[in-house]
Amino acid sequence: MSTLKKTIWITAGVLVSILAVVGFIYYRTMLSPNVVVKGEPKYLLVYEEDTFDDVVKHLKKLGAMKDMDSFIRTAKRNGYPEQICPGRYKLEDGMSNYLLVHRLINNRQAPLSITFNNIRTKKQLAQRLSEQLMMKEADLLDLLNDPVALSEFGVSPESSVALFIPNSYEVYWTVTPNDLLCRMKKEYDKFWTKERMNKLAEVGISQLEVSTLASIVEEETNKLEERPMVAGLYLNRLRKGMKLQADPTVKFALGNFALRRLLSGHLSVNSPYNTYQNFGLPPGPIRIPSMNAIDAVLNYARHDYLFMCAKSDRSGYHDFTVTFDEHKGNATKYRKSLDERNIH
Q1: 231-253: per-residue pLDDT in tens?
Q2: pTM, whole model, 2 decimals?
Q3: Domains in the chain, ordered, with CATH?
């Protein structure tokens, strides 16, 4: 073999070896599995103000990377430090650096399921959601109290919580307060099916008023089978032009849901939510009513009852009466039971 041919073969061999080494390094750095997740899924949370160094710190804390240096090299090679997107990203077992960086750069977030139930106030709602999402509690509260912004959704600061039908919803961790409210409005409209709208016409009050009445019903009783009875009673009072005189509205006005006994001083509190002082429904819900409570109003029991009083046996149920004289007898027994338990 000539010297020239030998040189060519040697050069080719060297080039192949170099390419093989480069390919191996490329594969090991970018394409080989570098994420280890055993058991519960792990999620990388990237906040709005995070830098690349912060992202690296978050990953180290999660302990899911086999080789952090190779991830850093891949991220820098693909320009990730200059295009960080906040979000919640799922780390999957066996992911390569390239796949993870590609997911981060393109904001391929993993949705999460948010839930909220047993909520009484806007502040509680904002706190519960801010615990699950990136949004700040104050930002959501500002929106729920902004009459101009809320007018686009057909609600007011007093009724804005009615749009939040308790359930589980899939959203992105980075959802903004406005986008969340848009989503809740869509879910609210979806909840009000044709069947429910037909029942609404028969009840004779608006959708938001149904939510307000449902919130009172839910505060009055946790006995599901009793809720249509309570709803029917308050609808009877509304139709007769009587004050609702609903104890839960007074507790809401006072901001004290733990009160076990209402006294005359409590009943005179000056508030539009005090249905002992004002006619009709309060300006908005006194809690976020459940689907069950809303349906209890739409499927209210037809009867002639106008008065109700908690049973003295502490069962959680109520005595219903048509006349005030009958009601006074039940109220006397109930007050006696409170006295016996030293509830003042």
Answers
A1: 999 999 999 999 999 999 999 99
A2: 0.86
A3: 24-105 (3.30.1490), 112-191 (no CATH), 205-303 (no CATH)
